[in-house]
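Narrative of activities, Objective 1.

The group set out to show that a structural description can be obtained from nothing but a protein's sequence at a throughput compatible with the screening campaign. Below is one input-output pair from the validation batch, recorded exactly as produced.
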Amino acid sequence: MVLWLIYFLLSLVFMLLCYPTNPFVVPFCDINGELPRFLKYWQTWDNSCYCVDSVEHAPKFLQYDWARHYEEHIDSDPYLRSVNRKRWYVTCKDPNFTLWERIQRYCCAVLWLTRNCSYGFSFYLLGLNVSPNLEIRQSENTLFIREIFSDGLWGAWSYKNTAPIFSLFGWTVHWNNYIGWKIAETAQVDTRAMIANRIAYHFEKEGD
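Output recorded for this entry:
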């Protein structure tokens, strides 16, 4: 818990750094949406800045014909292989973008980095390599995972909570908490886990 609290505070600092600078970082992307090494902490570790998800999560008027220009594949690099992780890579198959498409692509990338702010910091600097020796406790609305052989103060753990808080006028408010580290609970070898720092809630209409 002590380690997570220290890393949580650092993650807030990194987010405050990344939110205002994301728009200035995106122009450094190459044609495949990869940032140079000195800016990799701004990028999502598991995706290109021009990934298909960046388009699908953008407002309709910013969505360009991604499939005409790009294709994706799963692969790895030496570091990710060493921590049992893979990522999505994007390859540009048609570099002929209109001016409006370039603006759309830029906006989608900025929104993507903002939606997943300081992801690289959270993975490379604030992540932990977690062993597959895990204790898992699960109930209807909660999930708790920890490394069996780790120190409780300094080791990796994960806690999710989606329990209902209260209902009003046909809507139920639920917790939407995910803290600790994003542990790959089915991994068979040591695997990198990025820090998780979501403390929030969400609304759900009864009957949905």
